[in-house]
Write a structure and sequence with these properties.
By secondary structure, the chain is of the alpha+beta class. The protein has 5 helices and 12 strands.
């Protein structure tokens, strides 16, 4: 994984604005209308607050798409039977991949088709009355969640070969595992420590002991002199995109038969997962002293 860092280092030297006990300092109080608020407990002596930020790119590991198959019949049962027949073979082919790699959800929607007529002005009107139902349309919709992208291309190709009335573009997303998230947080803390040391040396100061390690990064966002501290923070770690590119290596095969195979041979399916960004940051505060 390629690692890029970008860090904002804020050096702060301040004394406490109010003398407070440790319990009081944890939750600073402020009078309504006051311009300034009490300083946090870690600001009672000179400190350096360092925000470490880390960014990397990882290939998407999830994909989703859906397709619809529609049938029309004189009765709702007839239409439902025909729609179910359209998706039966493709459903069976997709299930060969296993539920741990490809999750499938098939739903059916029944819509009555009413008698239509033209009014005196020649406009087409629908006679939406229960006794004026002429036929029924049933739409079978297959929703696929691909959890192993090795089966994405064959699954998509199999659905295309089944000739659905509509098929959606593939949406990719990233679900980082626990090890990746832990690695990101560790790298963010390392970056904060490295930047703090460089800033202290550049300022001719001495880096003291660690006072705060805040994985959320909110402690370094406290605006002590401008009003009540802002603790809001938003970190985006999942991105959904539609993407199509070169084919993947080692793709699994999903068997289709008959005329569907001919369609499959005419369609070239290439779906390579995009690289999606992951970011994280951490706040580390050190005591600061003279050289």
């Amino acid at each position: 994984m390629r690692l890029m860092t970008n860090c904002l280092v804020l050096a702060v030297a301040a004394q406490a604005l109010l003398v407070a006990t440790p319990a009081q300092a944890q939750v600073p109080t402020v009078e309504p209308g006051a311009r300034y608020v009490p300083a946090p407990w870690w600001m009672r002596e000179p400190v350096i607050a360092s925000v470490g930020m880390v960014r990397t790119e990882i290939a998407a590991n999830r994909a989703q798409f859906s397709a619809s198959f529609t049938a029309v019949g004189k009765t709702a049962d007839e239409a439902l039977t025909e729609a179910a027949a359209k998706v039966r073979s493709i459903d069976a082919a997709l299930r060969q991949s296993g539920t741990d790699r490809l999750r499938i959800a098939t739903t059916f929607q029944t819509v009555p088709l009413y008698e239509q007529y033209r009014d005196k002005e020649g406009n087409m009107q629908t006679n939406a009355r229960p006794d004026k139902i002429e036929r029924y349309a049933v739409t079978a919709r297959i929703n696929l969640e691909v959890r192993d992208l090795a089966v994405l291309e064959p699954a998509y190709a199999a659905v295309v070969a089944a000739r659905p009335e509509s098929i959606d573009a593939v949406s990719f997303s990233l679900e980082p595992d626990n090890a990746t998230q832990t690695w990101l947080q560790t790298e963010a803390v390392k970056d904060a420590a490295r930047r703090a040391r460089q800033a202290a040396e550049a300022a001719g100061a001495r880096l003291g002991m660690v006072k705060v390690i805040d994985p959320s990064g909110r402690a370094c966002q406290t605006d002590v002199l401008a009003g009540w501290p802002g603790y809001t923070r938003t970190t985006e770690q999942r991105t959904d995109v539609a993407y199509a590119a070169r084919s993947m290596d080692g793709a699994e095969s999903i068997v289709v038969t008959g005329s569907k195979r001919a369609v499959l041979q005419q369609v070239q399916i290439s779906l390579q997962p995009p690289m999606l960004p992951l970011t994280d940051d951490a706040c580390v505060m050190y005591a600061l002293g003279a050289q």
